[in-house]
Design brief:
Elements: H1 3-16, H2 20-32, H3 37-40, H4 52-63, H5 70-78, H6 83-107
Helix pairs in contact: 1-2, 1-4, 4-5
């Protein structure tokens, strides 16, 4: 995945999480990396983008992680993305989750 692809995915995840600050920051970074109007259209419900299979995977992983299944993974692979890219995406997502969970634990003194 290119730096722009990764940043589009981060912007989309922030959009799904309804975090306007993070979404705005990631979106501006996308623009600085050369995002097109087609790229920025991923934030509409009806987008048809080359990253759509990955974005669908991210949407399920973000909103309903229990529904991530082999069929969803196969959609990504069948769209031409590699198993390695899917692993990279999942690892990045988990790193983000763990980082934020650590901050929440610190804020609320849960440890």
């Amino acid at each position: 995945l290119s730096p722009l692809d990764r940043e589009l995915i981060a912007a989309y995840t922030s959009y799904l999480n309804n975090c306007s600050y993070c979404h705005g920051s990631h979106k501006e970074f996308c623009i600085s990396l050369g995002a097109t109007q087609e790229d920025l259209a991923i934030f509409s419900e009806e987008h048809n983008h080359r990253l759509s299979p990955i974005l669908n995977f991210v949407k399920v992983l973000t909103i309903s992680p229990n529904f991530v299944n082999q069929e969803l993974k196969d959609e990504v692979i069948n769209a031409g993305f590699t198993e390695e890219e899917l692993k990279e995406l999942t690892k990045s997502y988990m790193d983000y989750f763990n980082n934020n969970l650590g901050k929440i634990i610190q804020i609320y003194h849960l440890c």
